[in-house]
Structure formats: C-alpha cells, structure tokens
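Let's practice the habit of predicting before peeking. Look at the sequence and jot down your guess about where helices and strands might fall. Then scroll down.
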Amino acid sequence: MLMFVNQLNYKQRMHPRVSRAEIELFKALSTANLTGGMVTQKPIILKFTIPDFCWMEKRKIVYLDGRQVHSTDKAERRDQEIDELLELQGWSVLRIVYDPPLTDEELQRVMEQIKQFLNVDEDFDYNSYLPQKQFSFSN
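Done guessing? Here is the structure:
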C-alpha cells in the first residue's frame, strides 16, 4: 500500500494539475475545432513527459510553459532534452512560453502559433470564445 501512495506522489509531482492557462487554451482549441485527434496529458515514456496537448495522428505536441517554472537553466536543459528525444521518435514539438495569467491577447497569440504549427488556415473568431461582459441594471 505504501508503494502505491509513493507512486501517486511521484506522478503528482511530475504534473500535479492542469493549469488555468491550459484549461483556457483547451477551450479555445475546442471552439476552433482543433481538438479532433488530440489528447491531453498523454504520458509518453522517454524519461517521462506528459505533453499538455498531443495530436497523435499528426505526431505533434504542444507544451504551454509558464515562464516562472520553465526559465531556470535546469528546466531549459530538461525541456530541450525531452524535445530532442521526442523529435528522434518522429514527433514535432512546439513549446509556447507565456507569463501567467494568460490574457485574451496572449491566448490569441498562442492560438495563432498552434494553428500555424498544425497547418490550419481557418480563421478563428476569438470573440465567440471570450467570456461575455456581464451587465448589471441598477434602479
């Protein structure tokens, strides 16, 4: 039983939870119909990596990397090593570094990068995705 708990802790340390930015990006990808054939949080055994977004049929992986976590020399070396190992296995890798929180403008930039990476030319209406402003009526 103790071994099972330790395995969970290890897995949680590797990728403890989905970030708010990843959730917002997933919503935008879904609205733009870019989730077909895509899986999220798919473990790929190399060293051990869990891409944020993965298109299995296209062999394309996207990591949404918060600058605060991925800007150290150690993290950059690890990310580069993982990218090289993935590329040796036939994957194309896109790492998008951003400064949290993910703003609407930044989300648009990220979506454009992913569309280009996936070779998608369709226009995406960002306004249909963005939360609508709430109006209040006062007497």
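How did you do? The beta strands are 38-40, 53-55, 60-66, 92-98.
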